[in-house]
Design brief:
By secondary structure, the chain is an all-alpha fold. It has a domain at 17-54. The chain has 2 helices and no strands. Helix 1 packs antiparallel against helix 2 (31-53). The longest helix has 27 residues, at 2-28. The radius of gyration is 13 Å and the shape is elongated. The relative contact order is 0.14. The chain crosses the membrane at residues 29-48.
Length: 55
């Protein structure tokens, strides 16, 4: 139960922040930083969820 709630919390916090950063960066710097940011956020969420699942 706690893991699901924590994953939901992380997603709810990270997603809007990432969206704002993506909008700001894509408007000024173009696609390469945008793609790099998407990869970084995906990797970060993957690491977080992996650590949560391990006892």
């Amino acid at each position: 139960m706690w893991n699901a709630l924590f994953n939901l919390f992380v997603a709810a916090v990270v997603a809007p922040a990432a969206a704002l950063i993506v909008i700001a960066w894509s408007g000024k710097l173009g696609w390469p930083p945008l793609l790099g940011l998407i990869v970084a956020v995906a990797a970060g969420l993957g690491i977080i969820s992996d650590r949560i699942r391990k006892p």
